[in-house]
Write the structure tokens for this entry.
Amino acid sequence: MCRLSMTMLLFLVFFYGPALAWAEESGFTTTAKGAVLMEAHHGKVLWQKEPHMRQPIASMVKIMTLLLAVEAVEQGKVKLTDTVTASEYAAGMGGSQIYLAPFEQMSLRELLIAIATGSANDASVAVAEHVAGSAEAFVEAMNSRARELGLKHTHYVNPTGLPAPGQYSCAQDQAALLREALRRPLFRELTRMKEYDLRDGEFKLWNTNKLLWWYKGADAGKTGWTNDAGFCLASSAAREGLRLIAVVLGCPEPKTHFRESIKLYNWGFARFQAVCLAKAGIRVAALPVERGVLDRTDVLTGADVTLVMPRGKDKGFTRRIVLPQRVEAPLVKGQPLGAWVVCREGKEVLKVSLVAARDVPRADFFGMFNKALKQVYGM
């Protein structure tokens, strides 16, 4: 993970510090054992309670299960149209399930829908076995991915979230994980489904995340519940260009994980706003390319240039484009070439990479010779 610059740290203290203090002074509380409200644009925490406390998270484990499966699809390792055969082990899972029979076959897409909507444990194991060869190998991949993402207070034992010694996470880690998962269009598609007719309509799936019905802008998330974990929810909602992520763990009673999440969202949307200066993929310049098969390359914004700040604090910002006069081939599409820098009172508060729009291979000798001829003779 990147270290924060001193200017960025000062920005966070200036903008987010007062908000956190206000929440504490106003008596803003939650019955959740651990909770985090994060803005999804940059991953900054707006409010927290015991964010690093390790505790069981029940079926919220399936966020990582879904993420690994979705990444496997993106990487071409598996296809949504794959036919998955349920093993006897997968079919024997208890708890929430779609009642897979041993050796029953179903498409990978439908199994992923069953995980995302109905929190199906049997589908989770079947997917794990299909993606990694065995549930054990899949769990190793889950923990490896957790380490890559810097989830220091997370450890997985199974892909379902069923109670198991040594399986735990924390609110901060789950917010960061959901933020990463939301970058995948397929994950967003799966987790925003409210309902699905499985087995030609013989088995109805309803999404366990009731915020999809109850809260305006809610469009993703995963619930969890066991006696040890209590009622848990990691979810996301977007309004007026601002996307927030709320995680509540260890809520004591049914439906309180929805109530506490709504409280967090209401607090966050009332006090923060997002100001988008430029969308991802916008052309901002063209640079000369030396020794390339092309003479120039377009430069694009590598991500949304979005500021998240307390409402009423959106004045006094300046922005500048930082680019070299020219670049040298070879270039790779998406390669950082410069930055869009936003400052306030002379201090840098946001930097977004500007990237190459396409691959530009290096020209060989004959290519360079022909280019030289064209320049000399106007050919």
